[in-house]
Amino acid sequence: MxxxxxxxxxxxxxxxxxxxxxxLGVGVRAVLHANDLDDIDALVIPGGESTTISKGMQRLGLxxxxxxxxEQGLPVLGTCAGAILLSRQVENHAVPVLGLLDVxxxxxxxxxxxxxxxxxxxxxxxxGLAGLRCIFIRAPQLVHPGPGVRVLARVDGKPVLVQQGKxxxxxxxPELTDDTRIHGRLLALx
Length: 190
Prior knowledge:
Rossmann fold, 5 helices, seven-stranded mixed beta sheet
């Protein structure tokens, strides 16, 4: 039976995530309401603008149901703004968070849109991630990881991909490359 992965579709490049997941042969469901979380095997919270996404989540009543499903074991991948929303707290203009990942997110830590960059993971990455190209757009930094957080990759010594239980967070945009390894890790957790 094929897996179905939900994608929070409030704002951000959810279509790029959809295409990546479809390349991996799974079904995709848009998530905009609590009942959209029913019968999915994992969830992606895309990048975008964390304030806009958090306001949409509040308006749609998604904070409680999403947190509850994740605490029950639903695997979740948050990229860029999604990583911010998964964190326990936020610096630089705090937004409401889900508190599913024991890290502090520093919004726009690398600068503005014109400071966007890409980097290739090599020596400072978990096995199986060497050569992964990471695209950072107004990216957050994840700081003060708690003892249950595993750092899977770093760029310039800073965590850029972390995991705690079945929660994955990337400060970059894996959906903007052709590399399926990050989404594949989410599927492996499902």
